[in-house]
Design goal:
Blueprint lengths: L1 E4 L10 H21 L5 H18 L5 E6 L2 E4 L2 E2 L1 H6 L1 H9 L4 E4 L5 H11 L3 H6 L3 H7 L5 E8 L3 H30 L6 H17 L1 H7 L8 H20 L3 H12 L10 H4 L7 H8 L1 H10 L7 H8 L20 H15 L11 H10 L7 H11 L7 E4 L4 E6 L9 E6 L5 E8 L8 E5 L1 H4 L8
Parallel strand pairs: 1-6
Antiparallel strand pairs: 2-3, 2-5, 3-4, 5-6, 7-8, 7-11, 8-9, 9-10
Helix pairs in contact: 1-2, 1-5, 2-5, 8-9, 8-11, 9-10, 9-11, 9-12, 10-11, 11-12, 11-17, 12-16, 12-17, 15-16, 16-17, 17-18
Bound molecules: fe (ii) ion.
C-alpha cells in the first residue's frame, strides 16, 4: 500500500485543527497505556474508546482518514500541519521510527482493530524490525480498517524546479521592493502600499508552502546592499517563526509587512552614517536611534498599508525586558509581531558582515540569540527559533565526525543537532564533488564543530 503525497499546502482545514489535536492527543495516550498495561486493562480500553471518539469526530461518518508523517512533519488532507508537527513531535518521530510514513483509517473501524493497531504503534522499532518490518506486523495483526504504509512522492522534477523559481522570484521581489523604496524615500516621495501588499502576500505563501526552501534563501547576503537583503531575510525568518505560532493570515500579513519594512526609517538616514566603520558621534547616533519612530511615521503616511506594520516598525528595537529604544511606558508590552521581528533581526544582523563588524559564524550567532532569551528577546520565541533553524543553521560550515567538511543546507527533520548538509571536502581537505547528506539518517556522522569559512577560503554561496 502506498499513500500519495500530492502538492502540499500548509493551511489547517477550517475547524478540523481541534479535532485533529484531539485525535493526536488520544493516539499518544492510547500508545502510552498500551506500553504500560496488558491489553485487557481498563486503562487501555478507556484510551482506545477516547481514540475512537476522536476519529469519529474527524470523520463525521465520511471518508477514509489519512495521516502522513513526512520529513518530521505531519500532513493531513494534503496540508502540512505546522503547529501540530511541533506539538506532537515526539509521537510523530516515534511512529516514523517504526518505518510508518502514512496511516489510513477507514470509517467505522472497530475498537478491537484500533487496539491492535495501537499495540503495533507501541512496539519498539527494533522489535518490529526483528519481526520482519511493519508490513509483516500489520498482516500478522489482521488489520484491514487501519493501514500503515509508505509515501510515494509525486512531486516531479519539473514541479520542483518551478517551485524553486517561484521561491527565488518571491525573495528577489522583496529585495527589489526595498531597493525601489530606498530610491523613492531618498528622493522625498512616499512609497505606494500596493506593491508592498503583493510582495508580502507572495512571501507569506512561499514561506507557508516551502518553509525550509525559503529559509535556505534567507541566508543570502550582499555586503554592498546589506539593507535590501537584510530586510528580505528578516521578513522570511519572521514569517517562518510566526507561522509556527499562528496560521492566522491577517497576523502573518501584518508581520510580513512590518518585518520587510522594519528599517525603512533608515532610508532617511545619511548613507555615510549607515556605513560608517568607526564609532558614531552623539548626533549621528541620535539620528540612527530615531529610525524606528521615523519609519513608523512613514508607514502611517502610506494609506492602505496594514497599520499593525507601523507598530512593528516602531517596536523592533524595544527589548523583551523593557530596555531598548524608543523607551516604552512601564506596563506596555511589546507586540508579539515585534518580538518575532526582534529575534529575526538580531540573528540576521549578527551573521552579516557590516562596515563596522565582521559576520559571526552561524552557531556563534545562534548561541548569542539563545543567551538573550529572557533578557532582550522573548524566551519562548527563541526556543522555537533554535528549533526551526537548528543549532547549525543554513550556511554554517562544519567539520563532521569522520573528518569531512560540509556546508549546512537546511535544518533536519527533528534533531536540531543534525541538519541536512552538502559534503564538500574529504578528510584530507581535498575538495570533492558536493553531495547532499542528511545527518539525521542512520549511521550518519555527528557534527564535530563549526568552521570559519573565510579561513578555509570557502565561498559558501557556491554550494547553496
Ligand atoms: Fe532597525
Amino acid at each position: 500500500m502506498s499513500a500519495r503525497l500530492p502538492g502540499i499546502s500548509p493551511q489547517s482545514p477550517a475547524g478540523d485543527g481541534a479535532h485533529l489535536r484531539d485525535l493526536l492527543t488520544s493516539l499518544a495516550a492510547a500508545r502510552r497505556s498500551s506500553q504500560l498495561y496488558p491489553p485487557e486493562h481498563p486503562a487501555v480500553a478507556q484510551a482506545i474508546g477516547d481514540l475512537k471518539s476522536a476519529i469519529d469526530g474527524l470523520q463525521r461518518g465520511g471518508a477514509e482518514l489519512t495521516l502522513t508523517f513526512f520529513d518530521g512533519e505531519l500532513v493531513f488532507e494534503d496540508r502540512v500541519m505546522t503547529q501540530e508537527s511541533i506539538l506532537f513531535d515526539q509521537l510523530i518521530r516515534s511512529i516514523g521510527a517504526l518505518g510508518i510514513e502514512s496511516m489510513q483509517i477507514v470509517p467505522g473501524v472497530s475498537s478491537s482493530e484500533l487496539a491492535r493497531a495501537v499495540r503495533i504503534l507501541s512496539e519498539d522499532a527494533s522489535d518490529i524490525e526483528a519481526a520482519g518490518g511493519i508490513e509483516r506486523a500489520t498482516q500478522a495483526a489482521g488489520l484491514t480498517g487501519v493501514r500503515f504504509g509508505h509515501v510515494r512522492l509525486i512531486h516531479s522534477d519539473v514541479e520542483a524546479s518551478e517551485d524553486a523559481d517561484r521561491d527565488r522570484r518571491a525573495y528577489e521581489g522583496a529585495v527589489d521592493l526595498i531597493r525601489e523604496m530606498d530610491q523613492i524615500v531618498r528622493s522625498g516621495r512616499t512609497p505606494d502600499h500596493r506593491s508592498v501588499r503583493t510582495t508580502v502576500a507572495t512571501l507569506v505563501d512561499s514561506v507557508r508552502m516551502r518553509r525550509s526552501a525559503m529559509l535556505e534563501l534567507a541566508s543570502l547576503r550582499d555586503f554592498d546592499h546589506y539593507t535590501f537583503y537584510h530586510s528580505a531575510n528578516v521578513a522570511i525568518l519572521s514569517l517562518a517563526l510566526g507561522s509556527l505560532v499562528t496560521e492566522d493570515a491577517r497576523f502573518l500579513g501584518a508581520l510580513g509587512t512590518g518585518a520587510l519594512l522594519h528599517d525603512i526609517g533608515k532610508m532617511t538616514v545619511d548613507r555615510d552614517i549607515l556605513n560608517k566603520a568607526g564609532a558614531l558621534t552623539p548626533e549621528e547616533w541620535n539620528s540612527m536611534r530615531d529610525h524606528p519612530v521615523s519609519g513608523a511615521r512613514m508607514a502611517a503616511r502610506m494609506p492602505g498599508l496594514d497599520q499593525s506594520a507601523a507598530v512593528v516598525i516602531l517596536e523592533h528595537h524595544m527589548a523583551y525586558d523593557g530596555s531598548g529604544y524608543p523607551r516604552r511606558h512601564s506596563g506596555q508590552m511589546q507586540h508579539l509581531a515585534s518580538r518575532i521581528v526582534a529575534v529575526a533581526d538580531a540573528y540576521d544582523a549578527m551573521t552579516s558582515r557590516r562596515s563596522y563588524s565582521e559576520a559571526r559564524p552561524q552557531d556563534e550567532a545562534m548561541a548569542l540569540v539563545a543567551e538573550s532569551a529572557g533578557s532582550t528577546l522573548d524566551p519562548t520565541l527563541v526556543r522555537l527559533f533554535v528549533m526551526m533553524l537548528g543549532v547549525y543553521p543554513p550556511r554554517s560550515v562544519v567539520r563532521l565526525g569522520d573528518g569531512r567538511t560540509a556546508v549546512v543546507v537546511r535544518p533536519g527533520g527533528s534533531d536540531p543537532l543534525r541538519p541536512v548538509v552538502k559534503v564538500i571536502a574529504a578528510p584530507t581537505g581535498e575538495l570533492v564533488e558536493p553531495v547532499l547528506l542528511d545527518l539525521g539518517g542512520a549511521g550518519a556522522p555527528d557534527i564535530e564543530r563549526c568552521l570559519d569559512p573565510a579561513s578555509l577560503n570557502i565561498e559558501v554561496d557556491d554550494y547553496l
